[in-house]
């Protein structure tokens, strides 16, 4: 027994020391902030490339990736693929990644990931660009229409900036006969940009197409077209629909020119899907990272390196041990009676969508009706498996009915009742009914209330934003929790509720 106790103490000490050491290393050496106070945006961008490969041909996929202008700095960039060679080249101010494979078959998926933030350096990098271009050859009616449009543009402009803005506005005037002729029935934004480029080339004003991504989280993204021109000192950006100057701060330049975002040799049906996620990091630490031009190795020591959808899942998963710890304390130290350990935690997870008050009401209604059905089935003398099957089916029907009536009554929150695990509800009803039969209605009611109280408390603690951030950023803290749980496994002392039960003995001794 002594050797077992010593072994347990050593194991607990190792886990606690390891958890503290890894967390301290992340905080003091890597400089990861403990809280989200004083934060700045950290953008995670995933570009998912999907296509169908030809089984007998070599595959070569080329896609533009951001050149990272002076406004943004990359903290981490990765190319995720399976059995593909990867290379990145620079051409005409763009960056292009090339995935290649000798053989591939069927549906293929590749990922490009970029983690970036605003550049903190106050020093502006000098940029270069063309200030003159040759005219695009145009003949016949198109030339006459272009000259007719250029005359009022020259009259109503004073410099290159106003000249470009006026050209864009004139091109978007679909009531002008000259514009109709040049557009030739194609009023799409790319074609309008092509006409603007034609007009400006006649005036020897250089302009190029810019494709950007909007930095907005959790929204579908498609590249947005802009125009830009170099005035000798800086790039001027223009909206191709309104002519307004100035690229919004939430735009990330992805590539420039007329080429498509992606080209595939040896495949077909290529599609690129963008997924953006915005997180925050300590502003001071983030400024140091960008100024030092580091590759932000701290991302390798955290769950932030996972795919974005996986991150959101793990933000929930890492809080489950916290909920289990709450139940453990309530049961082993306080003496609260619940239906097991994991049932309250699963109910607490369901409360994330239903919210606490509405979730308690839904749980109470479903459980009460299920107990009523279970009591009725008991009179039919059914075996356990058929009985559970009937109760499970009843729970599904009841969930559907509640969702339907909630929708009809305008209570959209009731639609989230489907998030309650049906099997857990079924087993909860079964175990409560058995408890009712074996130990009486009062004890069953006490256990049900205890389960709801534990689930509610666990939900409140698991939903604290500061705690979610800390555990997700420093997952090694879970090792310390495991050490505490192991120590609780040897606790044999009184629970708080037992002090009330045995209060009479204390009075007898006095």
From TrEMBL:
<feature type="transmembrane region" description="Helical">
    <location>
        <begin position="354"/>
        <end position="373"/>
    </location>
</feature>
<feature type="transmembrane region" description="Helical">
    <location>
        <begin position="6"/>
        <end position="28"/>
    </location>
</feature>
<keyword id="KW-0472">Membrane</keyword>
<feature type="transmembrane region" description="Helical">
    <location>
        <begin position="314"/>
        <end position="334"/>
    </location>
</feature>
<feature type="transmembrane region" description="Helical">
    <location>
        <begin position="444"/>
        <end position="461"/>
    </location>
</feature>
<dbReference type="InterPro" id="IPR025838">
    <property type="entry name" value="Transglut_i_TM"/>
</dbReference>
<feature type="transmembrane region" description="Helical">
    <location>
        <begin position="385"/>
        <end position="407"/>
    </location>
</feature>
<feature type="transmembrane region" description="Helical">
    <location>
        <begin position="413"/>
        <end position="432"/>
    </location>
</feature>
<keyword id="KW-0812">Transmembrane</keyword>
<dbReference type="Pfam" id="PF14400">
    <property type="entry name" value="Transglut_i_TM"/>
</dbReference>
<feature type="domain" description="Inactive transglutaminase fused to 7 transmembrane helices">
    <location>
        <begin position="25"/>
        <end position="184"/>
    </location>
</feature>
<protein>
    <submittedName>
        <fullName>Inactive transglutaminase family protein</fullName>
    </submittedName>
</protein>
<dbReference type="Pfam" id="PF14402">
    <property type="entry name" value="7TM_transglut"/>
</dbReference>
<feature type="domain" description="7 transmembrane helices usually fused to an inactive transglutaminase">
    <location>
        <begin position="260"/>
        <end position="505"/>
    </location>
</feature>
<feature type="transmembrane region" description="Helical">
    <location>
        <begin position="467"/>
        <end position="487"/>
    </location>
</feature>
<keyword id="KW-1133">Transmembrane helix</keyword>
<dbReference type="InterPro" id="IPR025840">
    <property type="entry name" value="7TM_transglut"/>
</dbReference>
């Amino acid at each position: 027994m002594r050797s077992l106790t010593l072994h347990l103490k050593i194991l607990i000490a190792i886990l606690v020391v390891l958890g503290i050491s890894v967390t301290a290393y992340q905080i003091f050496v890597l400089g990861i902030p403990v809280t989200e106070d004083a934060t700045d945006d950290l953008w995670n961008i995933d570009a998912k490339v999907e296509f169908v490969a030809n089984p007998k041909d070599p595959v070569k996929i080329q896609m533009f990736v951001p050149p990272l202008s002076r406004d943004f700095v990359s903290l981490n960039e990765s190319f995720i693929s399976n059995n593909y060679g990867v290379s990145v080249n620079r051409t005409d101010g763009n960056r292009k990644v090339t995935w290649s494979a000798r053989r591939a078959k069927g549906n293929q998926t590749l990922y490009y990931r970029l983690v970036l933030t605003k550049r903190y350096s106050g020093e502006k990098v000098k940029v270069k660009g063309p200030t003159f271009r040759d005219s695009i050859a145009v003949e016949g009616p198109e030339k006459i229409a272009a000259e007719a449009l250029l005359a009022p543009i020259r009259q109503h402009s004073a410099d290159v900036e106003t000249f470009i803005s006026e050209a864009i506005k004139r091109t978007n005037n679909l009531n002008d006969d000259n514009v109709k002729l040049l557009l030739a029935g194609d009023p799409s934004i790319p074609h309008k940009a092509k006409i603007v480029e034609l007009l400006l080339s006649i005036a020897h004003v250089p302009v190029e197409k810019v494709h950007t991504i909007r930095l907005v989280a959790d929204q579908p993204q498609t590249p947005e077209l802009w125009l830009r021109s170099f005035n000798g000192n800086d790039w001027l950006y223009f909206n191709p629909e309104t002519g307004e100057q100035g690229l919004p701060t939430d735009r990330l330049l992805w590539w420039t020119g007329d080429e498509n975002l992606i080209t595939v040799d040896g495949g077909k049906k290529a599609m690129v899907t963008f997924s953006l996620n915005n997180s925050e990091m300590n502003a001071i630490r983030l400024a140091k990272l960008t100024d030092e031009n580091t590759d932000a190795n701290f991302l390798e020591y955290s769950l932030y390196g996972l795919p974005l959808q996986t991150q959101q899942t793990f933000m929930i998963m890492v809080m489950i041990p916290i909920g289990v710890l709450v139940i453990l304390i309530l049961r082993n130290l306080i003496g609260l009676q619940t239906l097991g350990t994991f049932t309250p935690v699963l109910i607490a997870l369901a409360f994330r969508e239903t919210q606490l008050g509405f979730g308690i009401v839904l749980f109470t209604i479903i459980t009460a009706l299920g107990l009523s059905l279970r009591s009725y089935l008991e009179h039919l003398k059914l075996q356990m498996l058929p009985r559970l099957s009937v109760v499970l089916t009843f729970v599904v029907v009841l969930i559907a009915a509640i969702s339907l009536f909630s929708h009809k009554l305008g209570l959209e929150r009731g639609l989230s009742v489907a998030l309650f695990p049906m099997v857990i509800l079924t087993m909860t009803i079964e175990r409560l009914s058995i408890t009712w039969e074996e130990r009486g209605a009062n004890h069953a009611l006490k256990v049900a209330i205890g389960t709801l109280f534990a689930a509610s408390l666990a939900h409140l603690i698991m939903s604290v934003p500061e705690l979610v951030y800390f555990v997700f950023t420093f997952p090694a803290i879970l090792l310390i929790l495991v050490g505490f749980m192991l120590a609780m496994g040897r606790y044999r002392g009184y629970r708080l509720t037992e002090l009330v039960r045995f209060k009479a003995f204390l009075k007898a001794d006095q």
